[in-house]
Amino acid sequence: ATATATAAADQSISPSIYRELPEPDVYILASGGLRIPAHSGILASISPVLEHVIYRPSKNRNAEKVISILGVPSDAVVSFVRFLYSSRCTAEHLEKHGIHMLALSHVYMVPQLKAMCTKDLAQRLTIESVVDVLQLARLCNASDLYLKCMKFVADHFKFVDKTEGWKFIQDNDPWLELDILQFIDETESRKHRNRRMRKERKLYVELHEAMECLEHICSEGCTIVGPYNVEPKKEREPCSHYSTCHGLQLLIKHFATCKKRNNGVGCGRCKRMWQLLKLHSSICDHSDCCKVPLCRKFKQRSPEDNPQWKMLVRKVVSARAMSSLSLANGTKRSDLNDGRRGIGTFRLQAGRRCRTAAFC
C-alpha cells in the first residue's frame, strides 16, 4: 500500500522535482490502513489546517508524525494528496471522487480544489444525486453549488419527489425540506411575476407603436386613410412600417362613418378610437402643430384625475423612451416587432388580408 501511494504521488510531480525533495517526514493514514508518505512543508504550505496539525506541540518529539484522514475512500485521499502536490486534478478523479474531495477541501481549507469540485459537481447534477449534493453543499458552505442544486430541484421537483434522497430529507431534515419548498414557491411566484411584467411591457410597446402609427396616418397618409390634402397610396399590400397600420386605418374609417356615433350612442369600436386619440393627446409634446384630430381639444380639457389612466400614460411614455434608446443602439424595428401582429386591440390576420378582429 505504501508503494502504491508513493507511486501515485510520484505521478503528480515530475521525476526531477521529486528527486530534489527530502525524505518524507509525515504519513497520511487513510481508510483500510493505507499509509501515504508526504512532506510536512508542502502540506503546511497548501492547507492551514494541516499546518496546524503538523506543527502543534507533541509530547513525544521523536514519534512518527501521522495524520489520519478517515471517513472517505482511500482513493479519494490519494487524489487529494496528489492535488496538494501538483495543484491539478483530472476530470476522471473529479468524476469518481468529486463529492469526497469537496468535503476534504472544505475541512482542510483548500479553496482552489473546492472551487474545482463545486464547478464539476454542478455540471453533473442528476435527479438521483441532486439531494445528496445539496446537503453536502450546505454543510460545506458552497453557496454557488447550493443555489444551483436548489434551482435543479425546483425545475425537476416532480421527479426528485420520488427519490430516496427526498424521502430521507422528509424523515430526517424537515428544516431543509422547508427551505426547498419555500424556494420552489418563490421561484414559481417570480416566474409568474416576470411573465406578467413581460406581457404588460409588450402591451405598452404595442400602444406606443399605435401612437406612432396614428401620427403616420394623420400626417403622411397610408394605403386607405390619410389627411384631406394627401392622396392615399395605391398599394394593395399593408403598410410595411407598422404592423398595426392597416387595422388602425380600418378603425379610423369606421369612426368617421359610424351612424351610432352620430346618434350619440356610440359603439365599442368608436369608444376605443376615442381612447386612442385621448392617449395620443396625453403623450403628445407638440399639440399646437399636431395633425392628429382632437389632439389640441383634449389638451385644453382638465387633466385626467384617474390614477390608472396616469399610470397608463407613464408606461407608454416609458416604452417610447426605451424604443428610442433601442433604435439609437442599432436595434432594428423588425426586431422590436418580432412575434407581434399588433396591439392588444388590433390583432391582424396573417397574410395579405388584414382585419381588426377585436372590433368586428
TrEMBL record:
BTB domain ranges (all copies): 24-93
Pathway annotation: Protein modification; protein ubiquitination
GO cellular component, one term: nucleus
Gene Ontology process terms (BP): regulation of DNA-templated transcription; response to hormone; response to hydrogen peroxide; response to salicylic acid
Pfam families: BTB, zf-TAZ
InterPro entries named among the record's database cross-references: BT1/2/3/4/5, BTB/POZ_dom, SKP1/BTB/POZ_sf, TAZ_dom_sf, Znf_TAZ
Keywords: Metal-binding, Ubl conjugation pathway, Zinc, Zinc-finger
Top-level taxon of origin: Eukaryota
One Gene Ontology term of the molecular function aspect: calmodulin binding
Protein name in the entry: BTB/POZ and TAZ domain-containing protein 1-like
Source species: Momordica charantia (Bitter gourd)
Gene this chain is encoded by: LOC111008555
